[in-house]
Design goal:
Elements (H helix, E strand, L loop, with lengths): L7 H10 L2 H8 L17 H5 L3 H30 L3 E3 L11 H12 L1 H4 L3 E5 L3 E2 L4 H6 L11 E2 L3 E7 L13 E9 L7 H26 L8 E4 L2 E5 L22 E4 H21 L19 H10 L11 H16 L9 H9 L4 H6 L14 H10 L1 H7 L1 H11 L7
Helix pairs in contact: 1-2, 1-8, 5-8, 8-9, 11-16, 15-16
């Protein structure tokens, strides 16, 4: 079995569904992509045949989206080749990722084309193993080794020639080349999942290349070429109808301008999540991970199991179209009701856990003890919610009127009293 790790795609998926349990499940899964060969390990055929229809449907949707992305990427790359600005890096014979030095050499070789062709050029085929992030984890107070990421493969690296100037104001004899991460997406709109992925790629390359660049700056050669990170990361979105356009229109595929995000805005919150929040999620036991079944879960490979647990334990996910923020708000209301002396605990937290540990499947039953609540005082489920609606709305309304009003509006209920 390969080591536990997350892929950049897993990270992007999290920024779409905002589900901590998804991250925990995919990180600790048994079938995954091998770190060195980046090939998926085989899963038992009988296990695949037992997958429910909803999981198979979700897989079909993911496959369709993937194929659409492949078609758009191929069309864009043909257009860039027609303009003589695309350099393809052939894969290694053993399919291993490139080392930081190999990546820098690729960028240096690519930079030689800048003066001959344009002031910018694109490179595809760079593949690298993500850093261990030891110093970053230490900086945020997280244990070393608490997270691991797999192989990363950004779609494009753009190189741009920068006119460097020395302190006296005259042009220096050396060259400064700026690199920029670009990912190609078949979507027509920019999403947070896109920016998270390119931010991760940028962060990885910066960490991998920085020591090599530091060594190069100590060179006495004034003509030394410097490779520096750009100030933005970019998503190349698909223009409407571009995938289905005739092949003779390939030369116009790159006319749709990419969407760039400043790394100064992108990286700080991403670093906080990666090196502070994420280690806490991944090192927690599964029953302590917060999650809530909601519309954003559609298409998730773990949807079927979460649906089953939601129904079996009468979780708030049974309420149609209830978002994660609204579910957290309901949990907070139940906590407030508990502090007001309103009896909302039909199930005691410790009793639920005892019942879960006595189930037929200990692993799955342990998972069901997790609740969307800030403390262990109240179990947040449909049964306890019903007790509050039927017997405590009046008291809640007298003490916290705005909260009670929002609570009633959210659930479509009225106060129980006259």
């Amino acid at each position: 079995m390969t080591e536990a790790h997350l892929s950049p795609t897993n990270l992007a998926n999290y920024y779409h569904n905002q589900c901590n349990l998804y991250l925990h499940n995919v990180y600790h899964r048994r079938d995954r992509i091998d770190l060195k060969s980046h090939k998926e390990t085989k899963t038992n055929d009988a296990q695949r045949q037992r997958q429910p229809q909803s999981t198979q449907t979700a897989s079909a949707l993911v496959t369709a989206q993937y194929q659409r992305g492949i078609k758009w990427e191929a069309r864009l790359f043909r257009s860039l080749e027609n303009h003589n600005v695309l350099i393809r890096v052939p894969p290694s014979s053993d399919s291993t990722p490139q080392s930081p030095k190999q990546i820098r050499d690729i960028l240096l070789d690519g930079s030689k084309h800048l003066m001959e062709i344009e002031d910018h050029v694109y490179i595809t085929g760079i593949v690298f193993q993500s850093p261990s992030f030891e110093s970053e984890l230490e900086e945020y107070g997280s244990p070393k080794g608490s997270i691991a990421f797999g192989v990363a493969k950004p779609d494009l690296i753009k190189l741009t020639l920068i006119k460097s100037v020395n302190n006296k104001g005259s042009k220096s004899t050396g060259r400064m080349i700026e690199w920029e991460v670009i990912d190609v997406k078949s979507s027509t709109t920019l999403k947070s999942s896109h920016t998270a992925q390119i931010g991760f790629y940028h962060l990885c390359l910066d960490i991998l290349l920085a020591p090599l660049e530091l060594d190069s700056t100590s060179s006495p050669d004034p003509t030394q070429t410097r490779i520096v990170p750009g100030k933005q990361a970019t998503i190349w979105l698909r223009p409407p109808q571009s995938i289905e356009a005739p092949d003779d229109q390939d030369s116009n595929a790159d006319s749709y301008l990419p969407v760039s995000t400043s790394t100064s805005l992108l990286l700080p919150p991403l670093r906080t999540f990666l090196f502070k929040s994420l280690p806490s999620i991944l090192t927690s036991s599964k029953d302590q991970v917060e999650w809530h079944l909601n519309p954003a879960c559609q298409g998730c490979e773990f949807l079927s199991g979460c649906k089953k647990e939601t129904v079996q334990n009468a979780r708030l996910g049974m309420i149609p179209n209830l978002s994660i923020p609204d579910a957290k708000f309901i949990g907070e209301v139940l906590e407030i009701a508990h502090t007001l002396g309103i009896d909302v605990n039909a199930k005691k937290p410790n009793k639920q856990k005892e019942e879960g540990e006595q189930g037929e499947n200990d692993t799955n039953d342990d998972e069901t003890t997790m609740t969307m609540t800030t403390t262990a005082a109240v179990v947040v489920d449909i049964e306890n919610l019903d007790r509050l609606v039927k017997g405590g709305i009046d008291k809640l309304e007298r003490t916290y009127a705005p909260t009670a009003k929002r609570f009633q509006r959210l659930l479509g209920v009225q106060r129980s009293g006259p």
